[in-house]
Specification:
By secondary structure, this protein is α/β, with parallel strands linked by helices. It contains 16 helices and 14 strands. The strands form four sheets. Strands 1-2-3-4-9-10-11-14 form an eight-stranded parallel β-barrel, surrounded by four helices. Strands 5-6 form a two-stranded antiparallel ribbon. A two-stranded antiparallel ribbon has the order 7-8.
């Protein structure tokens, strides 16, 4: 594909959120116009879903973790004070209500492979795929918090690469259940013959692995997509190998386009010839004029929480920043947290980076530098990211909600549409069909296809 063709691809957009007061931009929940503290009400989520569908967003990408952020200071006190991804609801339970309030919006939900048997998880995802009419996706994560392991009865989490080895087996078990248990014609719904499903067309799955054992058929009849759209967000070498095998969509953190481009090129090469969509994390502050956007940025920045920023960074980098003075160099030893985050921080701030440099970079309470400007400037920046990093779209982090999304939809979306970079209407079909313009089911080139067993 020529470079000019790549830059004219239709931009894909997800809203990036979490069922908690403070997600990525720490401290924004304290802003008087922010509605994040309503996260525990159903109306919060149905209103958000309707707003995103009005803006023709491809999906809502819901993050999740299973433990509290207790690396900073050795306990969770600062996380609780700052609302740093705690308290936290189960995001899965918000999805059916949002699906009922919309027609086209997709939902990518994060779930950890380390702590739930694949047999139970397979039923949960099939249920969601049925109830949403084929609009469900799964962000596959292997976890990074020791606090989650302790909460679930373990002394500590598994080693980084071992978690991916477990996840590979987890995926094989799921593919067998989703793709290989029920034939397409298994369900008869024959009232006269009193046969709902033909037993000869339902196969018992026999999985005997190192981590999991299954001797049972899948409990759900085939859902619209069978296997949900598969997201993955690991950018370490082991994470990229996993993505190349399993992921349809990859989420990478935005640092510099040239840094992201190297990751994207590597993932695409490993996955070839299978197509992979890449989403980069982005934060946008847009105004009708550049001056208005800069004033808005200053207003938002006044609510950023430095301690909460360090709490979040400590957990994701695996480094207790409470032990460091502001200008003391931070060590870069390998951790069991998000390894790619440590590597990215060193590339951006240098090998001898400090806590002060991290906070200077965290304008709005996160390490993600915001895109700031008028609608044309923001559109230019998104185009530049697509051209220079070869990404397909963006996971847009929330700042002050819902005005950050209302501004983006009202100001930036029309500019992208005028440039031919954004859809004017949704395509028909399931989440996978909308994203890829292909069939509702995984393609034959995907690793899951070998589990179909001739059905």
């Amino acid at each position: 594909m020529a470079e000019t063709d790549r830059t004219r691809r239709e931009i894909r957009l997800n809203a990036f959120d979490m069922a908690t007061p403070g997600h990525i931009q720490q401290g924004m929940w304290t802003h008087p116009r922010d509605n994040a503290t309503g996260y525990a009400t159903l109306g919060h989520w149905t209103s958000l879903a309707r707003l995103l569908e009005r803006g023709l967003f491809d999906g809502l990408f819901l993050a999740d973790v299973l433990g509290i952020y207790d690396v900073y200071g050795g306990n969770g006190d600062a996380a609780l004070r700052g609302g740093v991804q705690v308290p936290l609801l189960d995001p899965v339970l918000t999805i059916p209500a949002m699906a009922a309030a919309t027609t086209h919006l997709g939902f990518g939900v994060t779930s950890n492979t380390a702590y739930e048997p694949p047999y139970l998880f397979a039923r949960r995802m099939s249920t969601l795929d049925h109830l949403t009419g084929g609009r469900i996706g799964w962000n596959i994560v292997t976890g990074y918090l020791d606090s989650a392991a302790r909460a679930l009865g373990y002394d500590a989490q598994m080693q980084h690469d071992d978690r991916y080895d477990l996840a590979d087996e987890y995926m094989e078990a799921l593919y067998a259940l989703w793709e290989g248990s029920w034939a397409e014609d298994a369900v008869k719904r024959d009232r006269a013959g009193r046969i709902y499903a033909d037993p000869a067309r339902v196969r018992r799955i026999s999985h005997q692995g190192r981590q999991f054992r299954i001797e049972a058929p899948h409990l759900c009849e085939p859902s619209p997509q069978r296997t949900p759209v598969l997201y993955q967000a690991g950018a370490s070498d082991r994470g990229r190998r996993f993505a190349a095998t399993h992921a349809e969509c990859v989420f990478v953190n935005g640092t510099k386009p040239e840094v992201v481009r190297a990751i994207v090129d590597d993932i695409r090469a490993r996955a070839a010839p299978r197509r992979v969509l890449v989403f980069v994390g982005a934060t946008v502050v847009v105004g009708r004029t550049e001056r208005e956007a800069r004033d808005m940025l200053a207003d938002y920045a006044a609510h950023a929480d430095a301690e909460a920023t360090l709490v979040h960074a400590s957990a994701s980098l695996g480094i207790d920043f409470s032990r460091y003075a502001m200008d003391e160099p931070v060590g870069g030893a390998p951790t069991q947290a998000i390894r790619s985050n440590v590597e990215a921080m060193a590339k951006v701030a240098g090998p001898a980076w400090t806590k002060r440099k991290l906070l200077e970079q965290s304008v709005l309470g996160s390490r993600q530098p915001p895109i700031v400007g008028d609608p044309a400037q923001v559109a230019d920046a998104l185009e530049r990211w697509m051209r220079e990093a070869d990404v397909d779209g963006f996971n847009l982090s929330r700042t002050v909600m819902p005005e950050c999304l209302e501004a983006f939809i009202g100001l930036v979306v029309p500019v992208l549409q005028e440039r031919g970079l954004y859809k004017a209407a949704y395509a028909p079909g399931t989440y996978r069909e909308k994203l890829f313009g292909a069939e509702a089911r995984l393609p034959e080139a995907h690793a899951a296809a070998r589990f179909r067993g001739g059905w």
